[in-house]
């Protein structure tokens, strides 16, 4: 979309480039399972998008004259663009400093019927975000919605409309390949399970789910212990994820690299590369508990595949579950007695480190030879899962112009202790004596992926000090790891924050001042803001957000920011009002 078209979209009327005068007299209210699997594409069937998309809402009554507030605002924006071009000079390539801001869309932006949820609200919201200088949006592309009905049957209906909507408003898209369940984590406002055919397979064999030492199953994400086992109607989980992403690539090929600029690969619960060690569902875990290891499924057994490949009818020895891997690793280390189970003295989900023999400061099992063996194995299993998925996604999206990213959880509680227990149970082998984030950064660097990290908005003193929370120190450690591994770092806020203090902390962290050289050249490559909600569009919060976006894009020393902010707030006011009302309803 051209610059004139984008600015004309503020009034949803055409504007000629020559005259700069708006014409037209209307304003649209829309601102408002078979035994033998044939892989990978031969048998795939993609639903017709138009068959699944509900019709657009009716238009509002026509307005006879151009709204003066929008007319003035759009002309002012054109003046601002002309001034920018004069500074850069004709044809001059000016290197932009600053961090582009994306905004996360609601988790339920696509309905279970594969249509856009609250279409009018999303349209108005996108237009408001664009007017504020936002670079783009992040949206979850749910495996549990698109491939819900049957293996290999993909319904992209709602996402087709969302992508086109983003393109229309000139917004870029970070598309999250969400292979996890929505519901049961911090901030989950809706429930979207895994595809029902995948859940059926887990019901038949519960060891496909992550399992704690008390036998509790977690259905948020299929256990990485069976990544390479064809347990999902004849396909492995990695094959399922790969086929899904390949179908996405083929359906949205015309938008890749232009509108769709980033693919974030979901690698665990909440889309993060980690184990589901702190599940909130049913009150299992509460902050700031240490969580629990997730590797107590079963040791090697035999069972028939539910849908084996047509040329493969036999009982398969299962050496792919977590405890089977542990057993093999222990035998290879010459310590077979270490391979029968994970730690049994690591406490419960809501214990603190000093409550347990394994995590306590003095003489804790984490710091003995067995503990070092187990934690190395546990964390390397997670890294291997990341390697497998990144190898797949890299081959699928090679030469498409999109960036690849992976999200890592910001587990900042008990960071000040020696053992860093919550990080260990999540799979990050990070202690006072060992850097657990450098191996992750190095793994991402090998595949050219972005390290996306959360809790960027948090400050140490805002968190419970008795739990030795230290988000700022954690962010600094991660930044140092990405510098050493030479991998780009992007950020997100872990919790919804709309206040100026959080914005200031994000601005500070985005500069990656790892060497005490404030104002240095290194910055985050992007920041994604949680989340597009009615709260964001409340007048004062919106003003603060617009100022935040402006400062992020211009850097900390941007002049005349406040004056420009007031101008942009005035420009976007009609859109913001409409978005706030529509999102509520």
Automatic annotation (TrEMBL):
Catalytic residues, chain numbering: 272 (proton donor), 492 (proton acceptor)
Sorted UniProt keywords: Carbohydrate metabolism, Glycosidase, Hydrolase, Polysaccharide degradation
Catalytic activity: Hydrolysis of (1->4)-alpha-D-glucosidic linkages in polysaccharides so as to remove successive maltose units from the non-reducing ends of the chains
UniProt binding sites for substrate: 140, 180, 188, 407, 412, 454, 493-494, 531
GO biological process, one term: polysaccharide catabolic process
Gene Ontology molecular function, alphabetical: beta-amylase activity
Gene3D superfamilies: Glycosidases
Protein name, per record: Beta-amylase
């Amino acid at each position: 979309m051209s610059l004139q078209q984008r600015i004309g979209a503020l009034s949803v009327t055409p504007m000629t480039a020559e005259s700069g005068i708006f014409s037209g007299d209307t304003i649209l209210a829309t601102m408002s399972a078979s035994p033998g699997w044939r892989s990978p594409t031969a048998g795939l069937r993609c639903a017709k998008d138009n068959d699944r998309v509900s019709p657009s809402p009716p238009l509002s009554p026509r307005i006879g004259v151009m709204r003066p507030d929008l007319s003035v605002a759009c002309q002012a924006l054109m003046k601002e663009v002309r001034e920018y071009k004069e500074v850069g000079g004709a044809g001059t390539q000016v290197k932009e400093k600053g961090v582009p801001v994306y905004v996360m869309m609601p988790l339920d932006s696509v309905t279970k019927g594969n249509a856009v949820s609250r279409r009018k609200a999303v349209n108005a919201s996108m237009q408001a975000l664009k007017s504020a200088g936002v670079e783009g949006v992040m949206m979850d592309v749910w495996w549990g919605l698109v491939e819900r009905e049957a293996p290999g049957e993909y319904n992209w209906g709602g996402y087709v409309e969302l992508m086109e909507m983003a393109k229309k408003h000139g917004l870029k898209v970070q598309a999250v390949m969400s292979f996890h369940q929505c519901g049961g984590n911090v901030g989950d406002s809706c429930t979207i399970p895994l595809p029902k055919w995948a859940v059926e397979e887990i019901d038949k064999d519960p060891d496909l789910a992550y399992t704690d030492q008390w036998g509790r199953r977690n259905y948020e994400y299929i256990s990485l212990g069976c990544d390479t086992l064809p347990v999902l109607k004849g396909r492995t989980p990695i094959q399922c994820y790969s086929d899904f992403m390949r179908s996405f690539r083929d359906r949205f090929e015309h938008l890749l690299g232009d509108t769709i600029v980033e693919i974030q690969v979901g690698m665990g619960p909440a889309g993060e590369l980690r184990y589901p060690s702190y599940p909130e569902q049913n009150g299992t875990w509460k902050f700031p508990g240490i969580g629990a290891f997730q590797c107590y499924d079963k040791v090697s057994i035999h069972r028939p595949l539910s849908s084996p490949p047509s040329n493969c009818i036999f009982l398969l020895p299962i050496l792919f579950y977590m405890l089977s891997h542990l057993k093999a690793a222990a035998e290879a280390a010459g310590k077979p007695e270490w391979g029968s189970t994970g730690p049994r003295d690591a406490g419960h989900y809501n214990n603190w480190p000093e409550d347990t023999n394994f995590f306590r400061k003095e003489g804790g099992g984490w710091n003995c030879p067995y503990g070092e063996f187990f934690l190395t194995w546990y964390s390397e299993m997670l890294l291997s899962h990341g390697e497998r998925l990144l190898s797949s996604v890299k081959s699928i999206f090679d030469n498409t112009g999109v960036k690849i990213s992976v999200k890592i959880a910001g587990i900042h509680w008990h960071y000040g202790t020696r053992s860093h227990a919550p990080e260990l149970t999540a799979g990050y082998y990070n202690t006072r004596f060992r850097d657990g984030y450098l191996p992750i950064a190095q793994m991402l660097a090998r595949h050219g992926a972005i390290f996306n990290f959360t809790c960027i908005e948090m400050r140490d003193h805002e968190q419970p000090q008795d739990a030795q929370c230290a988000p700022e120190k954690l962010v600094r450690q991660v930044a140092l790891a990405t510098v050493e591994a030479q991998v780009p770092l992007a950020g997100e806020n872990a919790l919804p924050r709309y206040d100026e203090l959080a914005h200031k902390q994000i601005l500070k962290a985005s500069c990656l001042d790892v060497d005490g050289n404030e104002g240095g050249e290194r910055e985050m490559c992007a920041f994604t803001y949680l989340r597009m909600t009615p709260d964001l569009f409340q007048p004062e919060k919106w003003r603060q957000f617009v100022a935040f976006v402006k400062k992020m894009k211009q850097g900390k020393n941007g002049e005349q920011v406040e004056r420009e902010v007031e101008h942009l707030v005035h420009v976007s006011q009609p859109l913001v009002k409409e978005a706030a009302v529509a999102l509520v309803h």
